[in-house]
UniProtKB/TrEMBL annotation:
<dbReference type="GO" id="GO:0046872">
    <property type="term" value="F:metal ion binding"/>
</dbReference>
<comment type="function">
    <text>Catalyzes the hydrolysis of UDP-3-O-myristoyl-N-acetylglucosamine to form UDP-3-O-myristoylglucosamine and acetate, the committed step in lipid A biosynthesis.</text>
</comment>
<protein>
    <recommendedName>
        <fullName>UDP-3-O-acyl-N-acetylglucosamine deacetylase</fullName>
        <ecNumber>3.5.1.108</ecNumber>
    </recommendedName>
</protein>
<dbReference type="GO" id="GO:0009245">
    <property type="term" value="P:lipid A biosynthetic process"/>
</dbReference>
<comment type="pathway">
    <text>Glycolipid biosynthesis; lipid IV(A) biosynthesis; lipid IV(A) from (3R)-3-hydroxytetradecanoyl-[acyl-carrier-protein] and UDP-N-acetyl-alpha-D-glucosamine: step 2/6.</text>
</comment>
<dbReference type="GO" id="GO:0103117">
    <property type="term" value="F:UDP-3-O-acyl-N-acetylglucosamine deacetylase activity"/>
</dbReference>
<feature type="binding site">
    <location>
        <position position="89"/>
    </location>
    <ligand>
        <name>Zn(2+)</name>
    </ligand>
</feature>
<keyword id="KW-0444">Lipid biosynthesis</keyword>
<keyword id="KW-0479">Metal-binding</keyword>
<dbReference type="InterPro" id="IPR020568">
    <property type="entry name" value="Ribosomal_Su5_D2-typ_SF"/>
</dbReference>
<keyword id="KW-0378">Hydrolase</keyword>
<keyword id="KW-0441">Lipid A biosynthesis</keyword>
<dbReference type="InterPro" id="IPR011334">
    <property type="entry name" value="UDP-acyl_GlcNac_deAcase_C"/>
</dbReference>
<feature type="active site" description="Proton donor">
    <location>
        <position position="280"/>
    </location>
</feature>
<dbReference type="InterPro" id="IPR015870">
    <property type="entry name" value="UDP-acyl_N-AcGlcN_deAcase_N"/>
</dbReference>
<keyword id="KW-0443">Lipid metabolism</keyword>
<feature type="binding site">
    <location>
        <position position="253"/>
    </location>
    <ligand>
        <name>Zn(2+)</name>
    </ligand>
</feature>
């Protein structure tokens, strides 16, 4: 059987270490990140390693079991309370660049937001190169539909589902007052993600951001403290300050986040995801429900 179009048959890791620095979208704190290659005998998947000086605070293997609810981002938390937040853009980039095994070291709790998109990560990973490993690449083949829905039949309905498909596909709808109904429908491949999805930025209305930041300070929860025009598509009224970077940028960014959140499953999917107004919480609920429903999926490999 052939591997899905656009994807390699063997796992890969970085050809050399990658280093980037920036500030967190929510904490606003400066953070240094190193992504290290893993050899053929190393752990499978992506592992986050929180550093403090030369010491290791915790290692967190990417898994829905470590996910903790947090506004406007995806966060993992270890058993001893060490956190890594806003991981979705990096996970989407590693998945679609086919970096199947790597260790991500960071000296603060939040992955840097960079320009608000996945494009800087894609460019940095491509610059480092990919080293092929001897292991057959694994996919998660969806065997039967799984669906999560809230407010069905109401004006505020949100839903997300996955069903069997020979390829990784998404159909995402989102609506935003003043911008109408937005939709992206297509196959998720390394090429389509880099060209169509990765450049889309995090976005939000300025009138919502300021109260959220203040409420976060009151509650002791970091929310949008690092939000800047340099890393956010800021909406004022019915326009984006500086304009959109790509057509329908808002729904494409929903796709970006969805790819990153679904990457917590540990492999690309062979399934079609259909989402209406998806959120990080909805995305997590879908991937957790899929993995918990053991007859709804299986591992698939396509040896060379």
């Amino acid at each position: 059987m052939n591997a899905p179009t656009g994807w390699r048959r063997r796992e890969g890791t970085l050809a050399r270490p990658l280093a980037l620095s920036g500030h967190g979208l929510h904490t606003g704190r400066r953070v240094n990140v190193r992504i290290l290659p893993v050899d053929a005998d190393g752990p499978r998947g992506i592992v986050f390693r929180r550093m403090q000086g030369a010491g290791v605070l915790a290692e967190l293997a990417v898994s829905p079991s470590l996910r903790r609810g947090q506004p406007l981002c995806t966060m993992l938390e270890s058993a001893n309370g060490v956190r890594v937040r806003t991981i979705e853009h990096l996970l989407a980039s590693l998945l679609t660049c086919e970096i199947d095994r790597a260790t991500v070291e960071l000296d603060a709790e939040e992955v840097p937001i960079l320009d608000g998109s996945a494009q800087p990560w894609i460019e940095a990973i491509h610059a480092c190169g990919r080293s092929e490993l001897p292991h057959a690449k694994r996919f998660i083949r969806v065997l039967r539909p799984v669906k999560i829905a809230d407010g069905e039949g109401t004006r505020d309905e949100r839903s997300i589902s996955i069903e069997p498909s020979a390829a990784y596909e998404m159909a995402v709808r989102n609506d935003l007052k003043g911008f109408g109904a937005l939709r992206w429908d297509g196959a998720v491949t390394p090429k389509s993600f880099a060209e169509e999805i990765a450049p889309s930025r995090s976005y939000g209305r300025v009138k919502w951001a300021i109260p959220a930041i203040l409420a976060g300070y009151v509650r002791g929860m970091p929310i949008l403290r690092g939000a800047r025009l340099s890393c956010t598509a800021a909406i004022v009224g019915n326009r984006v300050l500086g304009g959109m970077r790509v057509p329908d940028e808002f729904v494409r960014h929903r796709v970006l986040d969805l790819v990153g959140d679904m990457a917590m499953a540990g492999a690309p999917l062979l399934g079609r995801v259909t989402a209406l107004r998806p959120s990080h919480e909805m995305n997590y609920r879908l991937v957790a429900e899929l993995l918990a429903t053991r007859d709804a999926w299986e591992w698939a490999e396509f040896p060379a």
